[in-house]
Amino acid sequence: MRTDLEVANDFVHRWLALRKERRAHLGRQIPVAAVQVAALSHPDLAMRHFCLFLLDHYASDVSTDTFRRALRDPVASVREGALHGLACERCRHEDICVTDVVTDLVEILACDPNAEVRHKTVVALSRFLARDSRAGEAIARAAHHDPDTAIRYVAHPVADSGQPHHSGRKAALRDVRRAKRKEHELRARIHVFEAGKRLAREAAHGRDA
Q1: Exposed / middle / buried, residue 38 (Cβ in 10 Å: 0-12, 13-18, 19+)
Q2: What's the confidence (pLDDT) of residue 90?
């Protein structure tokens, strides 16, 4: 009798071998229990991440507990996959439990050591702003206290406007660098302006003397 990991491995390889237009049909035959086990315990991080992807697309409604447990995976990219599976509503047929999801997301935003994961958590939480006040409160805390500059940068407008955030971390990092350059340029212009005023005062003082 094959193990769950062997069953999951076989399904993944069969799915990847198919053309894109045929994958959906095989996806409906997903061995859910085996793929859930592999998502949490497969020794290959790429396989854990891919199993979360498959569960998100083909068995999201019955995999919430798997997504929640995978949030504790030691690898950040796997936790990102779990985060998406937990918070994404597009592939679900049943309503998401907003209270449970927001509880998990608030904890991730406060505690996850990886900035990319926390950034994506801000994006995910912003989709629940109108449905759970804790989402806005958590984002407001991140806007002031997150150690990452880019996360504070994207969290501020979300907290202030109450509107969802959509841009990725790379765009946020570019925006932060651009804002810092503008700040430095402004400070340089102010320094030149103040120096010019000082020289003008010294010249006027010299003439008066």
Answers
A1: buried
A2: 84
Separation of alpha carbons 29 and 49, rounded Å = 19
Query: Rounded to whole angstroms, how far apart are CA atoms 153 and 163?
Result: 14
Provide the token pair at 133. 């006040």
Hey, what are 72's tokens?
Answer: 């504790």
Q: Which one, of 147, 144, 104, lies nearest residue 128 by Cα?
A: 104
Cβ-Cβ contacts under 8 Å for 92 (sequence gap 6 or more)? 60, 61
Q: Strand, coil or helix: what is 118?
A: helix
Q: What are phi and psi of 132, to 5 degrees?
A: -155, 120
Cα 82 to Cα 70: distance, rounded to the nearest angstrom: 6
Q: Which amino acid is at 205?
A: H
pLDDT by residue for the chain (209 residues), tens only, comes to 899 999 999 999 999 999 999 999 999 999 999 999 999 999 999 999 999 999 999 999 999 999 999 999 999 999 999 999 999 888 788 889 999 999 999 999 999 999 999 999 999 999 999 999 999 999 999 999 999 998 998 898 898 888 775 666 566 556 656 655 655 555 656 655 566 666 666 666 666 65
- Residue spans of the domains in the chain: they are 1-88, 97-209
Q: For the residues of 53-79, what is the DSSP string, one character each?
A: HHHHHHSGGG-HHHHHHHTT-SSHHHH
d(CA 54, CA 82): 11
Query: What is the spatial distance between Cα 81 and Cα 184, in angstroms, rounded to a whole number?
Result: 38
